[in-house]
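[Q] Does anyone have a clean structure-token version of this?
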Amino acid sequence: MSIRETAITALQNRLALSLALRNPPPKLLRNETVPQRLPPCGLVVLRDGETVEETPILSPLSWQIEHRAVVEVVAASTTPLDALLVEIGAAITADRTLGGTVEWAQPGAPSFDDVETEGAATARAAAIPVTLVFTVAGSPLA
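[A] Here you go.
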């Protein structure tokens, strides 16, 4: 498994652990389309995102990678959405190395949108960019 995949999986596990403490917990998905029906306690979708910067480090050759994953959050209204955003931010900042899999994890400011869901009024959504910084040996693909 690549270090990039390990980092994204660690982020997913960190979110799952934190959100599992909510009663009831929101549904957590990875790289899936948002379902037509919104779960009553909200929805969190982790998108793998993309590498935004590769910096070579010489002798021995390694690469410092900045990878930006996106955490999409959908809730029925602004209040539960805000609570989920605060909780996600706290989960990431509580362990910025994600158990030692990255050198640094940094959540960014969310962007907001309204989304249509089946059988409900317009829901609120937010997308949080999460920058994962890690170093790989030899190739950025490692």
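[Q] Thanks! Anything notable?
[A] DSSP finds two helices and six strands in the chain.
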